[in-house]
Amino acid sequence: MRYIKNYSGTIRKKGWTIVRNTRIVLFLLTILLPIAVWGEEAPLRVACVGNSVTYGYGLKNPAAESYPTRLQEMLGSNYQVGNFGHSGSTLLSRGHRPYVKTPEYRAAIDFKADWVVIHLGLNDTDPRNWPDWKEEFIPNYRALIDSFRVANPKARVLICQMTPIFDRHPRFQSGTRDWHAQIQQAIRAVALGADVQLIDLWTPLHSRPDLFGDALHPNADGARILARTVYGALTGNYGGLKLPLLYGDDMVLQRECPVRLHGTANTGELVSVSLSKEKSTVATATATAGTDGLWKVELPAMKASGPYTLSFTTTKPAGKRGKTVICAEKVLHNVLFGDVWLASGQSNMELRVDQVLSEAQDVADAARLTNVRLFNMPARFRTDAVEWPDSALLLTNELLHMDPQGWSKATPEAVRRFSAVAYNFARTLSDSLTDVPIGIISNAVGGSTTESWIDRSTLEWQMPNILSNWLYADYGQAWARGRAAQNIAHAIRKDSPVYNPLQRHPYDPCYLFEAAIRPLEQPQIKGVIWYQGESNAHNVELHERLFTLLEQSWRQEFSDPSLPFYFVQLSSLPRPSWPAFRDSQRRLAAMLPHTWMAVTTDVGDAGDVHYRNKRPVGERLARQALVHTYGRKSLVPEGPVLRHGRVAADGRSVVLTFANARGLSVSRGFEVAGADGLFRSAKPQVQADGTVLLTISEGAKPCWVRYGWSGFTDADLRNSDGLPASTFLSPLFTE
């Protein structure tokens, strides 16, 4: 009799299974008759081939917690899963520890698996391996696959995109990051060339650094995620038809572009999508769910219109006669086509209608907004000065900090709970674009940092140091780091039942991108409105880099390189760094493509960062959008903008020229400095030609001019539309 042994000590013969304790196996084999149980069919053999991640390195009990063990539990008794992981092994046969020279490899070959899952490559990022032998990676991988096909010609082989290596790894910036990316690309090439199924183990774990204590090996929860991912790839079972969280009754889809719809279903299921109106079909499309469970369809572009019914049905052939069976069906009602906008940022964007001065008027206005739809996505846990309970800590780690509440019409109740800035932006657009439905998504989080809204890959490649030890490093504002430490204090105490030194928080770099942007699943949107900066105003230069990266990150996420960004400049508040920060924001708006700014210094409150006069803020954002996105050139988009400043011939006066200068008025707010850098107040006067003349009573010859240069400013330059000028600092030119 020939027996095949797997990792758990089960002896198997086709049609027979003998279960025994490995310590007494010789006794059972040589003294006792085997206790045999006849089975109708031998279990399907699944070999999990890999390195330390497969083996379960770092787990308290690898035999019980490794991903192959969890996979066995999920697959059940009709499968026999073998763990053939060897810690430290390389795919490269001339690497420092080749997998093909390990005893686990020989055991895996002898196992003659029906299914083989290979996860190798992580250790090939070692400088002893990839720099010298990278050209051999693809041939070595192909040879490994072939060896399993020789052992069992009917073997189904699946290979894995590697699990992440995080920035805390000691070699991350010295080569591991770059080589990891190159190896991932090589693995994709192997899958294509060898005609094997590719399993993505990177995506489900890249947003979970809290599961990787040493930046390389997942913990028990990470192993469960691996098992679920491999289970789906092996069985094609992804839980049936699932739609993105933005899909629901009363939703708004972006008009005037091909309508891209997507979701997941079980592998091989046919997904049929139908758009109908008043029982008449408008458009249909079908797709088949792939081996990763993903499907997508495209419907023709639609003009602003509605309501429609949008139906999703999955079917599969069943039975010998090939009859079609309906697996699942979901129907969405009252779907509109219009313009979809995303409103994000921190507390001044988060501030609700029921917290602002215009609540009564805002709610009353909602009665006429029949074409406005609100998607509210507030935080489940506020970042107030409290310690969070364990439930908040755990949900935050699972990227469930946000609470998607679905689409709603602009009812009084929905409006009161919605962002005041976002609502008034949507209200103003709806009033101006009378036949265009407006959908507005709000997912702002109080106190959040710019870096928390940028995707991890962007920061890993552009600014990796900001990811390291973020709670104690000086990249983040001290206030924000202190508040985060207070919220998560229970998790970072070693005696805590939820102790996790890698506890997540919404101010954590990347966190809100992972918890609030990525869950939207890349909807087609018209543009973004953004109000954030208070938690980054301590470091103007850093924010300039971060905000630029944020725009790049989002434009990539939404597959729109010209996605418009309309943001709010910080208002008036007596904080020393704010004048320079506001001027920096002004320069960013002028420099970055498809980016415009709304000025709010005239509505601030010297005693409250959360000033209550939010209605004008939404209106000013909408005014900018109406001009630059919707082409309403008859509107003045903003307040006076400095074009040119020069020293008059007398050497004592300054003449300033502005855009958007119709009906200028001003009485204060200007200062002028010479080469000595000492600023002195200058008296402004509007001239007949629309310029502003500054008169200097004393001091050196003017070289610089600045306006509104205090945290809380009463500077009052505005145009006839009542729109204020931005804080600015500018050099002067001589006539």
Which strand-content bin applies to the residues?
Answer: 15-25%
Structural class: alpha/beta
Mean pLDDT, all residues: 93
Please give the largest β-sheet.
11 strands, mixed
Rg over CA atoms, rounded to whole Å, is: 31 Å
Strands, total number: 30
Global shape: globular
- The end-to-end span amounts to 103 Å
The number of distinct helices, counting runs of at least 4 residues, comes to 21
Helix content bin: 25-40%
Instruction: Report low-confidence residues grouped into runs of 5 or more.
Output: 1-39
How would you describe the overall organization of this protein?
There is one protein chain. The chain has 735 residues and is of the alpha/beta class. It contains 21 helices and 30 strands. Strand 20 (527-531), helix 19 and strand 21 (565-568) form a beta-alpha-beta unit. It is globular.
Descriptive terms for the model:
21 helices, 30 strands, 8-stranded mixed beta sheet, alpha/beta, 735 residues, globular
Q: In a nutshell, what does this entry contain?
A:
The chain has 735 residues and is α/β, with parallel strands linked by helices. The chain is 27% helix and 24% strand.
